[in-house]
Design goal:
Helix content: 55-70%
Structural class: mainly alpha
Strand content: under 5%
Order of helices and strands: HHHHHHH
Radius of gyration: 16 Å
């Protein structure tokens, strides 16, 4: 039996904001969250898989890629640690909170964070846009 959430007053296609409000808080398990915050490789790889499979995180991940700053001048952004950026990323995924430009810059330029969070988001975005362009050509 499928669960259907009604987005009143219209029960049409839900928007990203509606999905963020309807998303259960803390849908990412505590052990995975703690492992990612601690920088454990196994947890980071599991998080990549979560990004690719979770329908709630999929849209958020694609939106994350769309929001990456084009300018990579470090002087323009507040310095953020991996732990702070990852914590903010979890809040973004779980609660739909916005990400500051310094967090986005860190996720993009930190090799470890980029490999585990930005690259999967980029892959999802490209996969989605490729499927849309193929569908439009039919």
């Amino acid at each position: 039996m499928s669960h259907h959430t009604v987005f009143w007053p219209f029960d049409g296609e839900p928007s990203f904001t509606d999905m963020a409000r309807a998303r259960p808080a803390g849908h990412i398990g505590d052990s995975l969250r703690v492992g990612v915050l601690a920088g454990q490789e196994e947890a980071e790889v599991r998080m990549e898989g979560h990004f690719m499979q979770c329908p709630q995180c999929r849209d958020s991940a694609m939106s994350l890629w769309e929001r990456m700053p084009a300018d990579r001048n470090a002087a323009l952004f507040k310095e953020v640690s991996c732990a702070e950026a990852r914590n903010d990323l979890f809040r973004y995924l779980d609660q739909g909170r916005s990400l500051e430009s310094g967090v986005l810059y860190h996720l993009l330029t930190c090799e470890d964070c980029s490999d585990h969070f930005v690259e999967p988001a980029k892959a999802l975005y490209r996969l989605d846009t490729d499927e849309e362009s193929i569908g439009a050509g039919d």
